[in-house]
Amino acid sequence: LGARKPDTGYMVPGGKGANQAVATARLSQGTGRVTQFVCQFGNDSHAKVLEKVLVDNGLDISECNHTDKPSGQAFIFLEPDGHNSILIVGGANVAWPAAANDQPGLGLSRKASAVLLQKEVPEHVNEAIAEAAASAGVCVIQDVGGEDRPFSPGFFRHLTYICPNETELERLTGLPTSTEAQVIAAARELQKKGVRNVLVTLGADGAVLLTEGGMVFRQSAFPVPGGRVVDTTGAGDTFRAAFAVALVEGKPLQECLRFAVAASAISVSRMGAIPSLPLRAETDSLMKLAMCEPFRFESTIDCAEIRRSMHDAIRDSGCLASGVSRRSVPTNPSVCA
C-alpha cells in the first residue's frame, strides 16, 4: 500500500460491535438503560485505547476478555465523496472459545432487552448468542455487515430482525435489488428462511422494513446536517443501534425508522466511526427540525439553525464535548456482541 502524503492515515477506535455499542450508549442517555458490550481485547496499545473509549462512554465491559493476539483492525480507504472501502484484519476478534457453552455473554443475552450481532466475529459465536437470547424471548438483531460468509440454514429462525444493505441482501438471496420492488421481493425470500423481520438500509434512499405480519414500512433519509457527506464509516452501525434503542423504548416501528435515519444522518456529517456517533440530544433535536415543512421538502437546508438547535440541546442535556453525559445513569441491559 502506498500513500501520497505522510499524514494520510490515523488510528480511530471502532469496529462494528464497538461502534454499535457506543452508539446505543450515547443514544440511550437519560433513559436509565446501559449497554453491555462483549468482545475479545487484543494484547497491544490499540486495545488499551479502545477499552478506555468504551468505559468513557459508559459501557459495561465486565464480560470482555483479553487475548494474546493483536487487536483486530480495519483499514478504511476514504473517498472524496465520503464513501469508503474497508479491509479487515481479524486479530483478537476471531479468538473466541470454540465451544458454544463457553461463549462470554451467554447469561447476559438471556436477560437483555435486545441483542445486536454482527459478522466481524466468528459465526459460531453469533449462533450461540442468538440461540440463547431467542430461547429466552429476547429480541435478536443481526447486522449482515462484516465478513462475507453464509449463514447456517437453522440460524435464521433465531433472528427477530436481520439488517442487510441492498448489496448484502443481493448476496444473501442471489436476487437483484436495484429497485424497491426487487428489494421487497428479496426480503420476502429471507423471511421464507425463518427471519421474522427484514430491515434493509438503502443509503441515501433511506430504509425499507418488512414485518412478519406482511407490512412494509418505508423511511426516506434525512438531509445531512451541514449539507455534505464527510464520512460514511459507521453509518450503518449507527442506524441499527438507533433502531434497536427506539425498539427497546417501545416506539412504533415508523418512529424507530425515523430515529435511525436521523442518527445516521448526523454520523455521516462527521469524520471517523466512534467520533462521529451522535448523542441522544442532537438526534432528538434533528428529528424535531425534520417536522418543519421546509426542512423536510426543500433542497436548501438552514444549517445554521440545525447547528444552533443541536448546540442548545447538547448544552441543556449536560453532555460533555467527548459525547458522554456524566449525569446519565443507565440500567436495562442491551447486549452487543
Give the gist of this structure:
This protein has 337 residues and is of the alpha/beta class. The chain has helices at 16-27, 45-56, 106-111, 123-135, 166-173, 180-192, 235-248, 253-267, 280-289, 293-297, 303-317; strands at 33-37, 40-41, 65-66, 73-78, 84-89, 114-119, 139-146, 161-163, 197-201, 207-210, 216-219, 332-336.
Structure description:
The chain is of the alpha/beta class and 337 residues long. The protein contains eleven helices and twelve strands. The strands form three sheets. Strands 1-12-6-7-8-9-10-11 form an eight-stranded mixed sheet, with helices on both faces. Helix 7 runs antiparallel to helix 8 and helix 9 runs antiparallel to helix 11 (303-317). The chain is globular. The two termini are 31 Å apart. Residues 293-307 and 313-337 have low confidence and may be disordered.
List the main descriptive attributes of the protein structure presented here.
36% helix, 337 residues, globular, eight-stranded mixed sheet, alpha/beta, 11 helices, disordered C terminus, two-stranded parallel ribbon
